Amino acid sequence: MNGTEPAIDVRDLRKRYGAKQAVDGLDLTVDTGEIVAVLGPNGAGKTTTIEILEGYRRRDEGHVRVLGADPQHAGRAWRSRVGIVLQSANDLAEATVSELVRHFAQYYPAPRDPDEVIDAVGLREKARTRVRQLSGGQRRRLDVALGIVGRPELLFLDEPTTGFDPEARRAFWDLVRGLRSDGTTILLTTHYLEEAEALADRVVVVRDGRVVAQGAPAELGGRAARQAVVRWSVDGTRHEERTETPTAVVTRLAAATVGGEVAGLEVVRPTLEDVYLELIGGAHDDMVEIAG
Ligand SMILES: Nc1ncnc2c1ncn2[C@@H]1O[C@H](COP(=O)(O)OP(=O)(O)OP(=O)(O)O)[C@@H](O)[C@H]1O
Predict the structure, then answer these.
(1) Residue 107: CB within 6 Å of ligand 1?
(2) Is 46 close to ligand 1, i.e. is its CB under 6 Å away?
(3) 131: exposed, middle or buried (C-beta count within 10 Å: 0-12, 13-18, 19+)?
């Protein structure tokens, strides 16, 4: 692998389950050291895509390179460079947290210190607790510990903070930022817009198995989607204007208002969530039809 090759390079990926085209011409590039968040409604094809990139699912068509190899044919050495957060180690429920993290560390050539990893995910108090006695959120933190103990170059996180309380989520974000400063490349899926905003260098929105938009969290959707809305009242009637120059609009309004105080004045910028919902608009048509 040469230094300029992206960590992940996907072109025209396709995967069908029976009649369902789950992934339908998806393109994705993730550069080394980048954190990319994949967003999309339920059933958009996010997990299918990640499983193909992890080498756990075969694709029907498309070009896929992950750390310079095709995951479908990559061997043990490749696998040791990739961190995967599995959905929960049920069959190992009798082991303690500490035993399990130590056990997984053995599989890697240059693992992180298991105790440091347990600390980093906030499970120090639970190190001697059996896995089956952990809460759902604690189990998920253990999954994260097992994903990072091998010191992966590339980490896949599929909805990593589902079930976390707000404090645990903040602590997890700090952990991910620490991994980034160690140079780890991270691809994560999430349904939490604020998580994408807090962590991602780039957000990729997937709908119906393909990418419908991508960009830095503050730039997603382009200028039009990012326009501010100025709202005000005149004699009890609300008015609004979409604009890229809200200061100029407010100045104009103030100049035209007796006393200079504009009634009911608001300047609102769309949040990432507003832009996202606009981008996936209509993705839930099926649900609406069933409900109606
Ligand atoms: N093993 C499977 N067999 C048949 N259909 C599947 C299978 N796995 C996923 N699908 C279907 O493929 C589509 C994409 O599913 P996928 O799990 O990739 O979506 P997702 O974006 O990860 O959704 P979520 O946000 O709910 O996790 C869905 O319509 C799903 O029902």
Answers:
(1) no
(2) yes
(3) buried
Dump pLDDT digits (tens) for 134-184. Answer: 988 888 889 889 999 999 999 999 888 887 888 888 988 998 999 999 899
pTM, 2 dp: 0.84
Total domains, the chain: 2
**Residues counted in the chain:** 292
Q: Is the CB–ligand 1 distance for residue 43 below 6 Å?
A: yes
Which residues make Cβ contacts (< 8 Å) with residue 200, sequence separation at least 6?
A: 35, 36, 37, 188, 217
Nearest CA to ligand 1 atom 27: 42
Is the shortest distance between the CB of 141 and ligand 1 below 6 Å?
no
- b or e along 56-75 (b: 16 or more beta carbons within 10 Å of the residue's beta carbon)? ebebeebebbbbebebeebe
Alpha-carbon separation of residue 83 from 27, 40, 41 (angstroms): 22, 22, 25
| Domain final position from 215, 244, 259 | 215
> What domain range is 15 assigned to?
8-215
DSSP codes, 153-180: SEEEEESTTTT--HHHHHHHHHHHHHHH
Do 171 and 29 share a domain, yes or no? yes
What local confidence, expressed as pLDDT, does residue 221 receive?
A: 77
Q: What is the ipTM of this complex?
A: 0.96
